[in-house]
Amino acid sequence: ILSGADVRTGLDSAVLQQAVLDHLYYSLGRLPAVATPANYYRALALAIRDRLQQRWIRTSETYFERGRKLACYLSAEFLLGPHLGNNLLNLGLEQAAREALTALGQDLDAILDCEPEPGLGNGGLGRLAACYLDSLATLQYPAIGYGIRYEFGIFAQEIRDGWQTERTDKWLSGGNPWEIAKPDIAYEVKWGGHTERYIDDDGAERRRWVPYRVVRGIAYDTPIQGYGVDTCNTLRLWSAEAAESFDFQAFNTGDYFQAVDAKLRSETITKVLYPNDEPAIGKRLRLAQQYFFVTCSLQDMLRILDLAGGAIEQFAEHFAVQLNDTHPSIGVAELMRLLIDERGLDWDAAWTITVATFGYTNHTLLPEALETWPLPLFREVLPRHLEIIYEINRRFLDEVRACFPDDSARVARMSLIGEAGEKQVRMAHLACVGSHAINGVAALHSELLKASVLSDFHALWPERFSNKTNGVTPRRFLALANPGLRALLDETLGASWPVDLGRLRELESHIDDPAFRERWRAVKHANKQRLADYVQAHTGIVLDPDWLFDIQVKRIHEYKRQHLNLLHIVTLYQRLKTYPAFSFPPRAFLFGGKAAPGYFTAKRIIKLINAVAETINADPEVNGRLKVAFVPNFSVKNAQLIYPAADLSEQISTAGKEASGTGNMKFMLNGALTIGTLDGANVEMRDEVGAENFFLFGRTADEVARLQGEGYRPADYLAGDDELKAVMELIGSGHFSGGDSEVFRPLVENLTQSDPFLVLADYAAYVACQEGVSAAWADQEQWTRMSIINCARGGKFSSDRAIAEYAREIWGLQSVPIQV
Ligand SMILES: CCc1ccc([C@H](C)CC(=O)N[C@@H]2O[C@H](CO)[C@@H](O)[C@H](O)[C@H]2O)cc1
Q: What is the ipTM, given to two decimal places?
């Protein structure tokens, strides 16, 4: 007879089976006979959450008892991906769950597929935050992720007639078993209004904020379970609701809309994720979202400090707050407001605490992505913060003048307020001034940061700057996504590699074993078959897993140069059409990625990919060697099918534009070879694997800057390259669009007239490099060796290595082992 406790905490399949049945019955009111796979998903999710609960509470208790420093990761995005599979892996319950479900006549993979993906992010920045939470828990660091509980996440992408269309992402419609609402953890969030001077009880002159509106922020907690440990940290996402959700007076007067007006307005704050990554959007609601989650998070830290009986002066010893780009950087002014206006500290004491508390990570060099807010908007919605920012700026510029006398140009460049044209608050400057640590996300990026956008700050505070090269979690993106390789690694290396990724190096001692290489290829082939089945099911396109799988998946953006990849494909197509004897190893080109809804050039690139795909796949003269597919709705869920199935990973951004990239690392760890430029983390990946195991091409960041400095003329490259010229003309002619030469004209003109990302300048080198890839592929044994080496040398790119660096060098964090 199972005790109550067992059913909630037992880890073997029999107990799990009972737990699923119990939740079906007591939580869902369903009898097995009529339960759907979605019901079983939910029942299993609740059963697993019970097992997390035990660890979750133990973890929070221990942190409270031990009173150790907490890392607080503030991010407007957390691209978590489906929870169930990852939690089963981290708890070591996959086998037990699979057996329990089999006994109930269910298939675990089908059940896993029922989970809606919490798409609370756009791309790299959001996914990095999720990987970092997994590493913080696995390395047993006390940490809280703070963010926004968007009711609607990143849109679902559907391709209609080759064009991207967006569908609302109703991820919460079936409820979310992985969150626990904490209505008792709620904070007031002021908005708008004005400030006024007053004399406090000790006769001191003080300022206070009289808001125009107040909304409430409610906490929703999600467990973040570590791998192979009992640590279960918290992701606390804030949801907005009206301070007063129903205005009875208005109702009594029959003004029903007014009665619910406050409720509707307030809830809009956390209604939807802004689907843009890179171009900053100066929208008021975006600022509201940023301020909302930041003030709730900082007020929550103050409550935790009070509960622990800590003195306010010790705030920075209790909390290391990391700003994930500038999106939460209003936090610098907000902590000052809370410390001065609400806790009565004087300016200097408050400022010392603030700088000691914050660290700022920059994720992009693109000028259009650096957030600035128009002064009038800022003053209207955050009047007290503007006062505080002015005072921060006054003292800061005094420091600049002291260090760099008679350099008014520098003062103007560094000011928190941009005066050119409409006055703007420069959020990156606020983040730098208010943080004791500033870092980029790859070695090249951190150097470029110091040499360009933040060079003045580096000149003033070189000691604040460091590099923290990104990483990815080997749990989700290797052990979970690639069960075939996982089994081979477990057998070859033992089971510790998921938490000690450096051990992958030992694979190199098996490289000359033909049987090992055979097994290595078999794992890859099975993953390619699995992806081919998925692509056929979602696009109707049939791919042959014996072909070379050449994959580019990431957000669609001109600097990521999906259109350069397309020019190579059209080149191969043209060569085949012109010289039927022309041969190369058959290749399947796969694309995936969302375009920001308002980014029309990116949407046109998606249309061109689908147009080229349609033409090639339907052409018997070429589809025996070439196939192209656009995988719709790229997400964490299908990414787990895509990364393990690649032979070649496309990382072809214009050098100096991709801060790091993280998809590049996921492909490498899954044994794909990379064709890429010396950009972002590609540089360090190539250093790890050796030049001979990396397909490099293109101009370096310096060469790009020089060429653009000298005045780049794309037409020169057209004139000098007949094949390129023919390719551009073919695209412009309407050949891929049923003779309609208008649809791709803007793209062709963009490339031939301005080409801001040097696509034409790198074309010839890219095509030549791709010929090298085809040549290398012809020697499968050699290719397999290179594939093994890419995986074996991927240890550095574990998010565990990155988090250990943040903990040691920025946060001063100690790990706290947890025992249930
Ligand atoms: C305000 C709109 C907005 C939204 C998101 C962003 C992000 C910074 C964009 C982003 O995701 N950047 C990516 O961050 C990854 C994690 O560090 C890097 O690996 C990618 O190179 C970088 O493009 C900028 C501007």
A: 0.98
